[in-house]
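Quick one:
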Amino acid sequence: MPPDRPLLPERLVLLDRDESALHAVQLDLDGEGLLQNENIVLADIRDLSTLRRRFREHRPDIVFHAAALKHLPLLERFPAEAWQTNVLGTLNVLTAAEEVGVGTFVNVSTDKAADPTSVLGYSKRVAERLTAGFAERGDGRYLSVRFGNVLGSRGSVVPAFTAQIRRGGPVTITHPDVRRYFMLIPEACQLVMQAATMEAAGEVLVLDMGEQVKIVDLARTLISMSGQPDVEIAFTGLRPGEKLAEDLFGQADDHRVTTHELITATDVPPLPASVVGTTHPEPHEMHDALTRFALAGRSAQAGSTPGSRTLRMASSTSA
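Output:
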């Protein structure tokens, strides 16, 4: 998608449960934050009946589903929240989209869904599998887009490090060898929209993130740029569920080239909505349920259009 080619949706609808986030986005897009525009929708993806009403009202052609809980250590402590939002919330959005005949559904995923080791990764892997399941049963194109950290997004490491540097330090890093993938906000947005135009029903499209960056190198660069060279770095230890380095593909994932040089495709085993929708794990069973739904089927696996209406399921937290 050339950067100078305009995107011409008939309407852009923003749906979020975070009223402050909606206010900020409207300021960015429209230069005002009066929140009176009918295209600003306050709703929670955990509430299926409300989603159904809003989808019937707006009848979007394209849905970008980015709503999720994404802070790994919190979800390790509260796995039921990951189940309610990342799994059942995604199922609700998929259901509402299918009922109104959405043409293209893009589930925004994360590199933590590749060979997951955390509640966050398990829950996002389940979301990928649910999306693939809907691709098998409907007329629309349902696909996922998987990528790593986005520099400058809400909750990302750069604002956190900057705040710690302003306080005089220390800058806290889990491990001296921890590495992560990064890309810029414009790059991520362009590639997600490009993925929405590809014939990739049921697939997971993985964005080229380049080489992983050592977090300690990023911290040292920010300290140097701050003019406060005496700020110290403190290593706190890897937290439960964290990896030293992320993966874009699981070991069992076959992957193949696409028509876009920066996008690679892979598959995940489809997960029927009926299986998840009828499962009600107790709090002490939540971690096992997420793991089971995320990893089942891996052994078998190893063998924007002008005039369209677009609904973006905004996210109140960042990857």
